[in-house]
């Protein structure tokens, strides 16, 4: 979120800056003469001073939260051995990039917002713009690498240990940290990123630090920093989502089969248990004469009566078991169907 905020702020500043240097000069002098909410005003109104304090508190809170939060991520992975997995290598590197954004880019931006002017000269202006582009691009490329890692872990789990080795991860992280330099430090310090008019304006007005880009740099930089990683991330997460839906349906079918098998085994075990019990009663009628006599109204029964009572009991038992298991299976399948929907 911090990186996105910085990138959006940079894009707004670039889009809002006029292309003509004369307009930039007039706008800068107008802001310096009429700006009452900055540190350059010797006699500010109390409302303006309050607004300045609030802005300083907000900027300081955001920077401290970014630095401390990302530092906690790095320390947690370093202290706990169980967190030292391949996926967390990307997370630690991403935390480092975000922390450097807060330290090297957001601090200069806060000074410009609070003072209303650039106080560090032309060279540091190029350094600030380079840091902003470099660390923001590195952060976005880290997110792209994390999406690819998650794709292999979820969609191709058998290939994941073979593909995502320490060597592969190190190669990907090295490219993530080296590629942004090709669109940040090199073109900015060589002057390839802007127009000749803006270069002349920078020399004449060192108190202004405005990031104005030409058309070619805007296309290349936006493609490397946003469009290409964005397409890769959307593609990877769409495939992950489809795989998650497929696995959920497979688990639903598997759970239904497990329930049906458990019901069948439960019914079979009950039938075998009670069939053995009544078979013993039929083979030894003398031992169960009193029980059979109680069932037939207290009269002692013969072996023929015992056999008749046994056959009736078995039939009633099978009917009751079938009806009870059928209703139980229908109820559990209905519940499982609602959960899968």
UniProtKB/TrEMBL annotation:
InterPro entries the record matches: GPCR_Rhodpsn, GPCR_Rhodpsn_7TM
G-protein coupled receptors family 1 profile domain mapped to chain residues: 69-260
PROSITE patterns, alphabetized: G_PROTEIN_RECEP_F1_1, G_PROTEIN_RECEP_F1_2
Gene Ontology CC annotation, any one: plasma membrane
Record bears the keyword Transmembrane helix: yes
Keyword Transmembrane among UniProt keywords: yes
TM spans (from-to): 49-77, 89-111, 131-152, 173-195, 215-238
Record Pfam families: 7tm_1
Location of the protein in the cell: Cell membrane
Record family assignment: Belongs to the G-protein coupled receptor 1 family.
Name by which UniProt lists this protein: G-protein coupled receptors family 1 profile domain-containing protein
Lineage, highest ranks first: Eukaryota, Metazoa, Ecdysozoa, Arthropoda, Hexapoda
């Amino acid at each position: 979120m911090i990186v996105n905020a910085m990138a959006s702020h940079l894009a707004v500043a670039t889009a809002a800056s006029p292309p003509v240097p004369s307009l930039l000069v007039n706008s800068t002098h107008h802001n310096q003469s009429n700006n009452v909410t900055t540190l350059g005003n010797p006699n500010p109104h109390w409302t303006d001073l309050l607004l300045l304090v609030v802005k300083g508190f907000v900027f300081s809170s955001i920077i401290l939260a970014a630095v401390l939060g990302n530092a906690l991520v790095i320390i947690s992975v370093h202290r706990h051995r169980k967190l030292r997995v391949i996926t967390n290598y990307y997370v630690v590197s991403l935390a480092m990039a975000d922390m450097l954004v807060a330290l090297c880019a957001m601090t200069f931006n806060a000074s410009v917002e609070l003072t209303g002017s650039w106080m560090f000269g032309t060279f540091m202006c190029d350094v600030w713009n380079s840091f902003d582009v470099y660390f923001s691009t590195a952060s976005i490329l880290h997110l792209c690498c994390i999406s690819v890692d998650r794709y292999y872990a979820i969609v191709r789990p058998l290939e994941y240990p073979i593909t995502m080795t320490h060597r592969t991860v190190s190669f990907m992280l090295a490219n993530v940290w080296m590629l942004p330099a090709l669109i940040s430090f090199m073109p900015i310090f060589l002057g390839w990123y802007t127009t000749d008019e803006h270069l002349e304006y920078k020399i004449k007005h060192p108190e202004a630090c405005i990031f104005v880009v030409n058309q070619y740099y805007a296309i290349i930089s936006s493609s490397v920093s946003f469009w290409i990683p964005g397409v890769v991330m959307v593609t990877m997460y769409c495939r992950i989502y489809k795989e998650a839906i497929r696995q959920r349906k497979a688990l639903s079918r598997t759970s239904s089969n497990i329930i049906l098998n458990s019901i069948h085994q439960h019914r079979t075990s009950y039938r075998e248990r009670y069939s053995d019990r009544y078979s013993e009663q039929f083979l030894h009628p003398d031992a169960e004469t009193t029980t059979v006599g109680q069932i037939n109204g207290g009269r002692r029964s013969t072996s023929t009566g015992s056999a008749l009572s046994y056959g009736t009991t078995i039939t009633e038992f099978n009917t009751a078991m079938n009806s009870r298991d059928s209703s139980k299976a229908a109820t559990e399948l209905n519940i499982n169907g609602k959960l899968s929907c």
